[in-house]
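anyone seen this seq b4? input:
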Amino acid sequence: MSAYTLLQLVEVLVASAVLLYGVLTHSSTITVLGGGFLMGKAILNILAPEGGSVYRRSLIGYFIGTVFVLIGIIAIHFTS
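predicted toks r here
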């Protein structure tokens, strides 16, 4: 197993732990944060066949994940 693959697995494990913690503690904000991390990682890997550096794909993926988190936090604020 390459170091990059191991790093990705650790990142997914950490993001999943954040998501699960948010669900178990009934914290909508932390749950959205964990979902945003997982979205960023998923988009990074979805873009792999398109080419581009890992840094470029990471910027795109985690930017979209950040937008998701911000929209989620705003939605939580107005619905709570």
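Helices lie at 3-24, 28-46, 54-79. The first helix runs from residue 3 to 24. kinda curious what u guys think
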